[in-house]
Amino acid sequence: MNSKKEDNMDILNNINNQFKELLELIEKEKDSSFSIKYFDKLKKTKKKKKSSKKKWFIISSFILILISIYFILLNEELTYNIYFVLLSFIRLILIKILPYWDWTNIYTRYIRIRGQKCANTTQIIKQSNITFFNFTKNIYLNNLPVIVDDATETWPAMKELTVKKLFQLFMEDPILAENDICYFESNIRNYNRPGGVDQLFNDYIDGNRRSFMVQWNNCKRETLKVIRSYYNKPYFLPPSVAQTLMGNWFLVSAGFHKGFNYLHKVPLNYDWIWLAQIQGSSLIELRPKHPCEKMCSILKSVTLNKGDLSNNCFLFVFSKDLVG
Asked: Its domain of life (predicted)?
């Protein structure tokens, strides 16, 4: 009997112990679920804080950008600088994609549709130490002609090139001698035939020719680097204005006195050019091109002295001495 009671007690104790273990497990599970919920809540709170910080960062950045744009627009000179730097980057991109997509036809059509801006002026402006900003705003964007008298001071051409040395350079430099000149015209008929270029150069070097006028285009890309080692891009030009790959024009004359009144049309049919007086002096006229010829005046008897640089969108006619 006692043994049965003891067995029953053991069973009850065992059940009781198991029940306690079950209760403990339930409590632990409650704690665990609470912890999970708590940590979930913490995560959500952190996410909200993070998204809130990100939102405020974006808003703050946007406000700073607007403030920066506002102050940039207030500073006209800085605006011009940024504008032309962007244009220069766009130009580089267009050059890179040209082998894959010929955008020049679209550009040409746009230029024709847009038309040319005509700005009438009765005199040519003379400047020195002109800033990029003043040149761009007052001259370049208004299509006005100007003479800048300090743009060529650092050019090697000013010290190293004379008419004789220029002719010798084209005869003796291996790259220049190997590549033909693309366009050549002289006021002396004998030189306007095949072989006339070398004949004129040799005649002048040997002292057999003193009076002449001649112009030519050095258009081969191989030769551009040789000639450009003698001059630099003018300091006042905006970054987006690049030197053309169409070549260098030389306008050379010698042996004419001041009373000489012959003006010769220069076939430079570009929208925008610049002309530098390397030696001597030249008398030029600036004649407006179509469609501005009826609105704008002809600028007569404009003198370019040694070191002067003129740039405009007019037609050039010239007389006497070395121009490059």
From this structure: Eukaryota
Closest CA to 212 of 321, 285, 303: 321
pLDDT the model gives residue 256? 67
Q: Is 252 exposed, middle or buried (0-12, 13-18, 19+ CB in 10 A)?
A: buried
CA 168/CA 170 separation, integer angstroms: 5
Domain assignment of residue 294, yes or no? yes
For residues 152 and 196, state if they share a domain.
Answer: yes
Phi, psi at 146, each rounded to 5°: -150, 150
> 61, 96, 112 — which closes off a domain?
112
With beta carbons less than 8 A apart as the criterion, state whether 309 and 276 touch: yes
How far apart CA 124 and CA 310 sit, in angstroms, is 9
Q: Do residues 139 and 283 both lie within one domain?
A: yes
Residues 88 and 161 both lie in one domain = no
Q: What is the C-alpha to C-alpha distance for residues 319 and 324, in angstroms, rounded to an integer?
A: 13
Does 175 lie in the same domain as 95?
no
Structural domain ending residue among the three candidates 65, 95, 112: 112
Residues 130 and 84 in one domain: no
Mean pLDDT over 80-108 rounds to 73
Query: Which helix (DSSP H) or strand (DSSP E) does residue 254 occupy?
Result: strand 248-254
Q: What is the pTM of this model?
A: 0.63
- C-alpha count within 13 angstroms, C-beta hemisphere, residue 26: 6
Going by C-alpha positions, the residue among 190, 185, 143 that lies closest to residue 288 is 143
Mean pLDDT of all residues in 14-25:
63
Mean pLDDT, rounded, of the chain: 75
Q: Check whether residue 122 and residue 218 sit in a common domain.
A: yes
Dihedral sign, CA of 268, 273, 278, 284? Answer: positive
Which whole number is the average pLDDT over 192-205?
A: 90
Same domain, 294 and 182: yes
Mind listing the pLDDT tens digit for each residue in 236-272? 877 666 666 667 888 888 876 554 555 566 666 666 7
Strand partners of residue 218: 248
